[in-house]
Task: structure prediction
Amino acid sequence: MVAPMWAAAKHPAFAGRSLFVVQPLDENGKDAGTSFVAVDHVQAGIGDKVIVLTEGNGVRQILQMGDVVPIRSIIVGIVDQVSLS
Amino acid sequence: MYLGIVKGTVVAERKAAGLEGTKILLVQPVDEHKRPVGDVQAAIDRVQAGVGDLVYLVGSREAALACDPWFVPVDAAIVGIVDGVGL
Result:
């Protein structure tokens, strides 16, 4: 679940990128663990349930900005539905 | 990446190669309500943050990648000063 975040002074790698505070959820939609900060890559909106990648090499593959990118978490999907059987 | 509040400064004249001239700050990691999460840590400052600022940090290998030169022994770096969180 996401909330937008604003930061004027930031490392150049974050220039022009939207930032969100993300609250991890369990499969039932309940809070699970501590919130963290992630860069948006899918035009997520306030309150969206999202998929977040939290691994630096994957982030560098997605952003294709070279090998020296200090970003560790990126929103890579918006969840429409979760089914439990 | 995660949020934190700058609590103080660290002065260390003798540091590992590559860290000359870097500023080290003490940061309390917090959640989006500024409630403390975990212990205070030392982080390299990359954005001219000051005591009391709400900042966001990057950890692990990416913390070193925020530095110049980037092959340095750093595991937390402040990479932005937060102006606001929309809750």
Observations:
- Chain A has one domain: 2-78.
- Chain A is about 10% helix and 25% strand.
